[in-house]
Predict the 3D structure of the following.
Amino acid sequence: MANSPHGGILKDLYVRDEPIQASLQAEAETLPYVTLTERQLCDLELILNGGFSPLDGFLTQAEYTSVVETLRLPDGALWAIPIYLDIARSELDKLGVSTGSRLTLRDPRDDQPLAIITVSDLYTPDFANEAEKVYGANDQAHPAVHYLFNNTRDTFVGGKLQAVNAPQHYDYVAIRRNPTEVRALFKKLNWTRVVAFQTRNPMHRAHRELTVRAARMRHANVLIQPVVGLTKPGDIDHFTRVRVYQAIMPKYPNGMAQLSLLPLAMRMGGPREALWHAIIRKNFGATHFIIGRDHAGPGTNSQGQDFYGPYEAQDLVLKYKDELDIEVVPFQMLTYLPDTDEYMPINEVPKETKTLNISGTELRRRLKTGAPIPEWFSYPEVVRILREANPPRDKQGFTVFLTGLHASGKEAIARALQVALNQEGGRSVSLLLGETIRQELSSELGYTKRERNINVARIGFVAAELTRAGAACIAAPIAPYDEARQLVRQQVDKTGGFYLVHVATPLDACIKNDRAGVYQRAINGEIKGFTGIDDVYEAPENPDLSADITKTSISQIVHEIILLLERDGYIGDR
């Protein structure tokens, strides 16, 4: 029999509101609306389907304050993470929203109405207090605190919800199950004792061993329930992770485990988040919940120290174990013993016993470089999937971004580099010259600072997409402003390599090289806002390479760029 929901009743608003769904759908089209953020979408789905029971709406001010200060709702029920609907006051005023208003909440992906909120409260939160009380520190090195101060709007809207439509998903639909569906699955399979396992990372042999140990210890079945909503910035994408989970499921004995996805927006809140996760798994019907080392930990703070202790999450959840009514299965980190070919909790390993581990950092290094990943660590099927999603450097794309004054020689360098990379082979090479981009993508733009930055942003978008596809991209705009160049670096860095090359040819040499006489026209006042004459060029402070064609030949500059690429493994056979 599945565990009872938190608070005693599963608040499945889809089931509750199904008899009036047609009238709600019609009403939703007549109401003012807001479009949800990605985090709000995740939160809303789990409120509506009962995953966040006993919540049936976004927190009011009294509920928010109680959760932040006491880990409880005003009625005394445990609740660890504040779930709020943040909307800019300016938008609320524009929509005419006040207490008693009804507001449609729309899906940001397809604009479908998902719910109607009846506003009972509009309030201004204390971000610093939330950071301290919920996440333990007002430190923006914590991803949730960073989100709080940089992405959260200034007004919170509290109120009850009515369900209109469920969010439409197109990926892994068969294993996206809500609490009602998971509970029905447990009943069909005759599962009465279920250990739930939370993860936001790929699973390897140690994870399989940990969950099987938990099942043996508690005479239970296993629910693998990975997060496919928002996780920690930099995590492996959920498409890759789910393929890994699907590959590892056959490694369990037949009938032992099931895989079901959870559309949760994690906060990386350590101890409080672990308590929240336990409540969610109780709502899905689990009777036991695994909490391992550094559960939902965000890493280190701005002083380089861990935000939370390695087993602080276990301690907090165990403190409330009687009230939670879901049994915590605490685990130490597992380590591999090569002499006996087995995994064992690190606190049970005899002294002087040889152990082996591969850290997350080391795994990422091996994936990037193509170094071997041993079978004692992971399954070949899992490694293959991870290598497909994380190819080694010589299979990844990169962008070489040349910036400099008009007629500085950057176009000649770009063309020569294109020839050199085509000669190298191994990937397609695309050339984005400043004038070409102006003609093909930015013909409507002028030369104000704003318009120049828009032009560079478009180049950055194209470069990032080419890099994502594994190509070599060579861009050669003037790009006079540092802020715009940094934004391009941020875009491309997410998908592959980025190299900023400052072609630092002096202005007098550029004027001399300008056969079209454009500089002279600018000097004569015929052209206004010309970079280097009456508009600024912000020289890069830390380029990957700086070159001056009056001092160095183009062939040598190209060779130095090639050496940078070889150093980092993008070209050459290692």
